[in-house]
Amino acid sequence: MNLAVYGTLRTGSTNTGRINHTALVFPSHQRFPAMICDSNGSGTIVEVHDVDDKTLAAYDDYEGLSAGVYRRVRMDIIMDDGTIIEAWVYLAGEKILKKSASFAVIPSGDWFNR
Fold it and tell me: Exposure string (b/e) for 66-100, b if CB count within 10 Å is 16 or more?
């Protein structure tokens, strides 16, 4: 299955695309980014990786799903070649969203170009 990553989980792969209607932000701690839905956002650059159930479960633990740090949803990705695929992606969860007043937007939407 496809998993789209946008921040510290990116490896430099060229299998990239964009998720429209989102914004890449730094929560108040500014150590790692979060993606939020934003109809006016510039979009977020992602890498797409093929993962199995066991690997996805490990990412869920790492991203703090059970603690509400992030939440995992399926979204459409417009790949660099123009094709559209669906992938799992981590959005800011309840704990991060509580700090939304302190979010700083990464205008490029690209963790590697911040």
Answer: eeebbbeeebebeeeeeeeeebbbbbbbeebeeee
